[in-house]
């Protein structure tokens, strides 16, 4: 080989130590990338899990709050609210019945915005694999039916241990509110506790919130 060419080839070659060092650096970089990747995947899974827990809670609170904020006074379409009502079609006793202006008005149904809402705790259909009970919201849109209609039921959240309601009459807090009363409470306090899952781990934190009841003044729509 030409001495000059041999010198160029020798100068551009890597030694064994240099190659081993390069491989070691590449391995360290790959381990770091792998740790970052799996850390990101774990964070994404944890974020998804937390979001899946928070969204139903937010929907639950927003729904109950909206129903209580929309309570209307007694009239032709609206009856009294109370914890001693006996609604039609429920397998479990109602914990609260209210008439509220949260009904959606659209061209597909003839009903107005006033609807009757019943809240109850019912045994879940998959009771063998679940703990607690389902918090069910029953909705009755046809308030002028000749015979009482069973409400449309929707499960707001599962795994509920207890739903406790308190009513402020302006002076004291009461654990119940009778349908024989012609007035409505000034505030309603809602407390929802949850059962521990069968798979283990702690129960979800208790949800507590208070809603002021500001009934609308009677109009021709309700009298």
Mind explaining what this structure looks like?
This protein has 223 residues and is of the alpha+beta class. The chain has two helices and seven strands, in the order ααβββββββ. It folds into two domains: 48 residues; 156 residues, no CATH class. A hairpin with a 4-residue loop joins strand 4 and strand 5. Strands 1, 2, 3, 4, 5, 6 and 7 form a seven-stranded antiparallel β-sheet that branches. The protein starts with a helix and ends in an 11-residue tail after the last strand. 29% of the residues lie in helices and 24% in strands.
Structure summarized in a few sentences:
By secondary structure, the chain is of the alpha+beta class.
Would you spell out the secondary-structure blueprint of this structure?
Elements: H1 3-12, H2 16-69, E1 96-100, E2 115-122, E3 133-140, E4 152-168, E5 173-174, E6 187-194, E7 207-212
Antiparallel strand pairs: 1-2, 2-3, 3-4, 4-5, 4-6, 6-7
Stretches where pLDDT is under 50 for at least 5 consecutive residues are 217-223
- Portion in strands: 15-25%
Q: What does the overall shape look like?
A: elongated
Distance between the termini: 111 Å
Query: Helix and strand string, N-terminal first?
Result: HHEEEEEEE
């Amino acid at each position: 080989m030409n001495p000059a060419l041999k010198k160029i080839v020798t100068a551009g070659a890597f030694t064994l130590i240099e190659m081993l060092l390069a491989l070691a650096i590449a391995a360290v970089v790959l381990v770091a990338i792998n740790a970052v990747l799996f850390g990101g995947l774990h964070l994404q899974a944890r974020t998804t899990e937390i979001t899946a827990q928070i969204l139903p809670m937010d929907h639950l609170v927003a729904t109950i709050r909206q129903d209580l904020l929309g309570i209307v006074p007694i009239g032709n379409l609206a009856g009294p609210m109370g914890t001693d009502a006996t609604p039609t079609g429920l397998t479990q006793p109602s914990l609260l019945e209210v008439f509220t202006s949260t009904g959606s008005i659209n061209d597909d149904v003839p009903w107005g915005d006033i609807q009757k809402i019943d809240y109850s705790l019912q045994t879940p259909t998959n009771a063998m694999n679940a703990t607690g009970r389902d918090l069910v919201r029953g909705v009755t849109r046809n308030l002028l039916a000749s015979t009482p209609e069973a409400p449309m039921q929707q499960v707001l959240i599962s795994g509920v241990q207890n739903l406790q309601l308190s009513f402020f009459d302006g002076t004291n807090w009461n654990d119940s509110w009778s349908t024989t009363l012609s007035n409505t409470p000034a505030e309603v306090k809602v407390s929802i506790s949850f059962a521990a899952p069968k798979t283990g781990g702690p129960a979800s934190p208790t949800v507590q919130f208070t809603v002021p009841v500001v009934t609308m003044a009677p109009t021709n729509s309700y009298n």
